[in-house]
């Protein structure tokens, strides 16, 4: 195959297999130089503590990593993926050992099963994979790192789909199979619609229990098993068809439990996620989804009736109003984020194996959709590695990288172990793969494209179809060398039809700009070549691509964004060598500004504004038409819900499976908003959708909860204990007659004034006076009154930080440039005054939390970034040598964002290290230790 990086020798031999093998060309490596010899290695100590109580939960000294790997990636790989007991000689200590353990296993299996033409091709394959993993170009999913090359079963798949029939024996098998999957570090999904409804009869004459009752047992089982030996809690999905007679009970299941959580919380029980009392609540270990079909959605659209069908004979058990049922789905999702929705006919219209059976279920995050009792191993590419300095996309390197990764993924099926014989048989027969990517949001921002824009969506669709087209072309080449998948013959017509649909969807992309146009052109070539070859040789894999959440492996690759997600926020939390942390602006921001035409001085001023405010609004010199480029998932300029939905719709036709992504909604969103999103998802051809409304779940540590005193009062009431109420009042602490003070003259816009402050001799600010006009004027009187109010508040113990948080960023005239070198621009006089007070009276650590720094501190940060030097102020130093360092109580980007925004974000606490996790697809991942809430 000219220009694709590998070629295949073809010629028939025995029963379905072919002779020859793949010829592998070098893409990243240099002949005669091992990848490990091209990088500088260094030793590091990995000591990880629980952020909340300081206890050490992991300690391994002297591990070896490349110098360019971040502390975060080092910590996560060392604690999660190194095998062997800590403190023993068998424990892995170098990234070389980890990569060799995996890559050499893949090479050996490839040679054994005839994938390579020569031993030299096998060696090049090994070196290319090692180079890409070493340089964070891609990563396999977590089970590969957990299991491959160890004495444990070689489970490589992260995603499993199970099945259950209408019998007690089958239901017990379901419980057992789920447990085995969780133990291996993976997640599973299942459709319960074959189980007869609670209104149907048993053969004995009694009434059936119904699927919802059996969900209780499975939920309890999942709650006791930590996936992968305590790497994360179990991840599971349960699905019910919309025409099942128990659908209304299924829809309301988790919403009812949420009501129970509220009641228990108000009674004083610990109902936070991970709290000691949350285990008493049912159905909390699974994602729930309703599987809707076109018939139901058309009935919703037309306002018609819809039949619920018995499981035994398909007879009509009940008839409901379709719109009312659809509203119940949306209402439950509004109340507790469950259920999500899956579009059955859309899913099966893109199914390559309909002769084998319908697709009825998905994995927990909804990206893997295939036949029952099957599995999928995943790998994801780091898109930022393919963004050239001139803003173009490295098409050739991307194509060759996809070829190598797909080849490796297919090889893994040859040696992999699976939890059940049914899954073993189906995975070996259909060889489902899930190549995907991370860092899409960072790529778009760095390219100067808004995530929510036609340009952003067209480039995302182009890259996705290039990836899938190349993967299927390589799959056809593999079929010509080692044979098509066993189930291909009976599904050949359907598989070819779906390939033509993908190629047609590629042709339908309307590229915006030369980069997208070039990528679409290359993708069309891949589809044409691959489909022509596939029609002759077949394909090696029933499916090739998905868009997974890339939680832990995203951090392993030092990605700014996960999966198909936009950037979380413009400010970022960075761990430093030797301990400590600092606040930086995401590195995609300066690159984006330069691509948009801003020169270095402008970039510096805009970055200073982002550090101080956490957003780009009113950034000096930044054009308002460029604001959308920097829109994020959270913050003052967050991407709209439909912006997320439209991105999913753009890339969906370009992938085999589906998309792990949650559409986030503000707390103010209505049930009608969710109905609209779910309905538009069907219209736009998306396969699955899940939403999350801010603060909709009580079991989140950041939802609005009662104060400790309120909880104590609620508990006392519940126990009917009556106690005497003691009321505590603040006491005013007056300043001494003689106190230290200072006066600062200032100018904001065209207004001049004076700020006089007085402080306690040993305890901070206690009094302010403001003068901005002649004595007796209205403005002078208002300023005097304001000064007295603030002064009394300070003397009654109101922290200065509280006033700073309330009055900074307040916008009104006069505003603009100031004569203060530390505060170049102010949104108002109040904004300037309280920034000046913060600089003069708050300690460095507290100012770092809210992003207020002196000019010398900001300059030091920029110099350090340019020189690659990191400053950690352990002792008092001149401000010029210090950088903004995040205070100890902030342990993740989510917590940093809360500090900058001044409001909470819905995210659970990490069970391992106690920090706030960040969204990753439809799950959460911890930046501190790599633990996830259920995704690989």
TrEMBL record:
GO biological process, any: DNA biosynthetic process
Gene Ontology molecular function: cobalamin binding; cobalt ion binding; nucleotide binding; ribonucleoside-diphosphate reductase activity, thioredoxin disulfide as acceptor
Key words of the record: Cobalamin, Cobalt, Disulfide bond, DNA synthesis, Nucleotide-binding, Oxidoreductase
Pfam family, one: TSCPD
Sequence ranges assigned to domain TSCPD in this UniProt record: 736-840
EC number annotated for this UniProt entry: 1.17.4.1
Enzyme class: oxidoreductase
Cofactor: adenosylcob(III)alamin
Ribonucleotide reductase class II vitamin B12-dependent N-terminal domain boundaries: 46-136
Reactions catalysed, as given in the entry: a 2'-deoxyribonucleoside 5'-diphosphate + [thioredoxin]-disulfide + H2O = a ribonucleoside 5'-diphosphate + [thioredoxin]-dithiol
InterPro entries in the record: RdRp_reductase_class-2, RNR_2_N, RNR_lg_C, RNR_NrdJ/NrdZ, TSCPD_dom
Domain Ribonucleotide reductase large subunit C-terminal positions: 157-692
Keyword Oxidoreductase: yes
Coiled-coil region(s): none
UniProt keyword Disulfide bond present: yes
Annotated NCBIfam families: NrdJ_Z, PRK06556.1
Function: Catalyzes the reduction of ribonucleotides to deoxyribonucleotides. May function to provide a pool of deoxyribonucleotide precursors for DNA repair during oxygen limitation and/or for immediate growth after restoration of oxygen.
Protein family according to the UniProt entry: Belongs to the ribonucleoside diphosphate reductase class-2 family.
Protein name: Vitamin B12-dependent ribonucleotide reductase
